[in-house]
Design brief:
The chain is α+β, with helices and mostly antiparallel strands and 203 residues long. The chain is built from four helices and 13 strands. It has one domain (3-201): Fumarylacetoacetase-like, C-terminal domain (Fumarylacetoacetate hydrolase, domain 2). β12 (187-192) and β13 form a beta hairpin. It is globular and about 45 Å long.
Length: 203
């Protein structure tokens, strides 16, 4: 299983970090070891003083595919989820400034929260899904897949032109504006279309 992540897929988030609006999807990979085990707390790593939450809609790939045409992309997933792409922002900033890869800032152990999965069929339109992240019961991020620069099927088609997609792969579709730092004893919870998808404690 691989975690394929899309960066800067919401214009407001790109702007809040001072990044240019991309002309094509920004893609990076997290290892499967980055997945936070179910029911486990998230522990802020010792190497970072600025870990940020980034809530994202997730898609689970259900069969093998490569060079998938956009019109067929909807056949390659039947479950939708919600999760967090934790980012060691201070480390990422330093690595980017040096022109170096920033996997260490994105792929560390526990950096990928994956909530429960729900059938795609229960949603009228996956390109219009509202989602939220709360920190200590206060809404800190709100998004809607309608605001994505590239929609889910476009992303699947694009990514599959570079990487063969396999059953069980997970696509992180990007985060909206409002990312921020987590601190010990924070409590994070995420909802998709009003339904809670995950909740975690930060240590």
């Amino acid at each position: 299983m691989k975690l394929i992540c899309i960066g800067r897929n919401y214009a407001a988030h790109a702007a809040e970090l001072g990044n240019e609006r991309p002309t094509e999807p920004v893609v990076f990979i997290k290892p499967d070891s980055a997945v936070l085990p179910k029911e486990q707390d998230f522990y802020i790593p010792e190497f970072s003083n600025e870990v940020h939450y980034e809530v994202e809609v997730l898609v689970k790939i259900n069969k093998v595919g490569k060079h998938i045409a956009q019109k067929f992309a909807h056949k390659y997933y039947d479950e939708i989820g919600l999760g967090i792409d934790f980012t060691a922002r201070d480390m990422q900033r330093s690595l980017k400034a040096k022109g170096l890869p920033w996997e260490k800032a994105k792929g560390f152990d526990g950096a990928a929260v994956i909530g429960k999965w729900l059938p795609k069929s229960q949603y009228e339109n996956v390109d219009k899904l509202a989602f939220q992240l709360k920190k200590n019961q206060e809404v800190v991020q709100e998004g809607d897949t309608a605001l994505m620069l590239w929609k889910i099927d476009e992303l699947i088609a694009y990514v599959s032109s570079f990487f063969m997609l396999k059953k069980g792969d997970i696509l992180f579709t990007g985060t909206p504006a409002g990312v921020g730092k987590v601190s010990p004893n924070d409590y994070l919870s995420g909802t998709l279309e009003g339904e809670e998808m995950f909740s975690i404690n930060v240590r």
